[in-house]
Structure formats: structure tokens, C-alpha cells
Amino acid sequence: LNAIMIQNINTLGYDFIQGPMGAWNFACFGLVTGVFILAIKERNKAMRQVSLGGMLAGLLGGISEPSLYGVLLRFKKTYFRLLPGCFAGGVVMGIFDIKAYAFVFTSLLTIPAMDPWLGYTIGIAVAFFTSMLLVIFFDYRSDEERKEAKAQMDAAKAAEAEGNNPAAAGVTAGPAAAAAATNAPATSGASTVTATRTILGAGEIAEITAPLEGRAVPLSEVPDPIFAAEKLGPGIAIEPTGNTVVAPADGTVLLVQKSGHAVALRLDNGIEMLIHVGLDTVQLNGEGFEVHVERKQHVRAGDKLITFDPEFIRSKDLPLITPVVISNAKKFGAVESHPNTEADASTSIITVTGKDQNKSENN
Fold first, then answer.
1. Cβ(214)–Cβ(246) under 8 Å?
2. Which of 81, 89, 126, 333 has the most other CB atoms within 10 Å of its CB?
3. The model's pTM
4. What pLDDT shows up at residue 359?
5. What CATH number is given for 147-362 in this structure?
6. Strand residue runs (E) in 219-339
7. What is the pLDDT of residue 161?
């Protein structure tokens, strides 16, 4: 379309496509603004960052890609909030017969390029606020996606509240399978007691082994902007060759989705991690997954957490790449991943180093 719009200006002296395109863009920017408002209300830091970036890039630069890849392609219900804004804004553009006398990216800064500019302003405002209000009042996620986000935030709040308590003694460095604190009760995998929480001492190292078999790859290769940009924490991703997720070390289940696609753990050494099997697998509503643990359950290294059917998931055209992230990385000195390896339950994929508290306070 860009070539056609430029040709229109060269031959006709004006273009009639950019006005309606502005309605689409501003409906998109209004949608992510609604997402931003909900993220503030819910204290959802990850979505707040993504939506703020999309909103500013759009309103000031006329660039819709951050909104498209950060929100629209991830949440399918957004299109039912976007299209009414496009339609309403487009109707206004048609009524005012909007023309553009220069080729521009449709942002707030390029309003003067449209004629009549007041009619164009009304049109983009209608598009913007229609989509924004639809998101605010009717949300942009499915019920399952909303429940997942709430569960993750509740777990993060619980972890943060617990993190305000004085930490117990650190643990001895070693493989993750043996790095858990020794003061946790010796209970079976079916127990529901909470282990004593400890934190790695300064310079102490914990090796996190792979929770499932497969090829370890950099987190940046995950086709999801939240994980790839480490918004949920640093870590690694695994292209599964097996079908079982196991506990990499002794710890407690912070949350596990009923749909079976994600589980969060707090290891006994204080490391908190999220294992998310595949992308967009929440939409399967549990089909192809079997959950073997429950929230607050204490597990041992190697205990089965989730099993899944790789062929079924692939048959639904969903990526199986599985992000494994350290969600409380700020409490530690360094988190280093070890990609490009064939991983199993004995392979170290992440190294976590304890923080020097005195040094961090001085900084």
C-alpha cells in the first residue's frame, strides 16, 4: 500500500488511503492503551512494559509493530476489540472525506498532514477511544488467560511477601538436584508441607538441571516477546524431545495451571522458576496435558510435575518450545544459561550465583 499511496500523491496531489489507515492504527493504539490501564490496575509489570512501549511507539511514531507483536498476535480476543474501533473511525473518515497531502506515518505528530485535520482528529479519537473502552470494560483475554495471569501475579506477590522475611542460612554449592536445603522435612512427593526457605550465600553457586529432555536454546529464540525480552526473568528454553516435566531440585509448587501447561516452583535454596510448556498452549484447556502435583506441594528432585502429548500439541500448530525462567533473579548476583546442548535431567542448563549483599548495598 505504501507504493500506491506515494503514487496517489504524485499523480493526484493527495492520497485517500492514509486517512482510513489512521483509523486502524489509532484503534490499535487505543487497544494497547486499554491493556496498559488494565496492567496498571492489576499490577501486571510484564504487560505494563509491553503495552507502554506499543502505546508510545504508536502515538508518537506511528509504528504499530510493537502493538501487533506484543499484544494483538498473542491474544486473539483483541481483534474483537480492535475491529469496532476501526469501523467507527473509518466511518468518520469517510464522512469528512479525509485526504493526505504527504506520505507520513499516522501518529499524533502527523495530524497536520491530513485535510480536513479537524475531521481526521475526530476520526482517530473515535477509533482510539472505542477500542480502548472495549478493552477496559470487556478485557482482552480469554477466561483461562485471565486466570493464568492472576495466578502468576498472586504467586509473585506471595513470593515477594515471603522475601521480606529474614532469610535462613545459605546452602552449599552443588548441582541443583542436591542443592536444596537439608532442613526440609523428609516427606514423600505427595506431601503438602512447605520447605524452609533459604537463600544462596555470597558467591555460592547452584546449578539448575533441565526439567525436561530436549535441546537447550537461548531464551531470545522463543517466538514470544515477553519471554524473549526476559520480562519474566532470565533463563533458557528447551525444544522438547521427551514428554515429562520433572522437578530439577527439591522445592515447593508455587502454582500449577489446571490446564497443565505451566508450573512455578520455589526451590529450597530460594530460587524461583517458571516452566511454561509450549506457547499459547493455554488455549488447549488441559487437553494433551496431565498434572501430577498441586499448589503448595513439596516435591523432590526428579518428581514428575507434568506430562504432555507432544504430537497432539503439534497437531494444533502450537510451538512446543518451553521457556524455563528464573523469576526472582534480582535476588541473586548472576544468572547464566547454557544453551546449544542436548539436555536431560542430569544436564546443567542454568547457573545461579549468590549475591554479595554488602556489595549490592554499597552500589
1. no
2. 89
3. 0.57
4. 54
5. 2.70.70.10
6. 235-240, 244-246, 251-256, 262-267, 272-276, 289-291, 298-299, 304-308, 322-326, 332-337
7. 52
For residue 230, how many other CB atoms are within 10 A of its CB? 17
Write the pLDDT tens digit of every residue in 302-330: 999 999 999 999 998 889 999 999 988 88
Q: How far apart are CA 217 and CA 236, in angstroms?
A: 6
- Residues pairing with 262 in the sheet: 276
Residue type, 246: V
**What pLDDT was estimated at residue 324?**
94
Q: Give me 306's grid cell.
A: 507434568
Residue ranges of the alpha helices (H) in the chain?
Answer: 2-12, 18-42, 45-61, 65-67, 78-96, 117-138, 143-163, 225-228, 310-315, 357-362
Determine the Cα–Cα distance for residues 347 and 339; give it in Å rounded to an integer: 11
Domain spans in the chain, listed from the N-terminal domain onward:
2-138, 147-362
Average confidence score pLDDT of the chain? 82
Closest to 132 (Cα-Cα) out of 73, 69, 98, 88 = 88
Query: Closest Cα partner for 71 from 57, 61, 86?
Result: 57
In terms of residues, how long is the chain? 363
Residues 6+ apart with CB under 8 A from 286: 258, 259, 260
DSSP 83: H
pLDDT of 338 above 60: yes
Task: Return the percentage of the chain with pLDDT > 90, whole number.
Answer: 45
Q: How far is CA 121 from CA 2, 159, 299, 349, in A?
A: 22, 46, 58, 53
Q: Are 43 and 56 in contact (CB under 8 A)?
A: no
Residues with active-site annotation: 276
Q: Which of the two residues, 61 and 177, has the higher pLDDT score?
A: 61
Closest CA to 268 of 197, 203, 202, 220: 197
Helices 18-42, 143-163: axis angle to 10 degrees equals 40
E strand or H helix at 341: strand 341-343
| Model pLDDT for residues 132-186, shown as the tens digit of each residue | 999 999 999 887 777 767 766 665 555 555 444 333 323 222 222 222 222 233 3
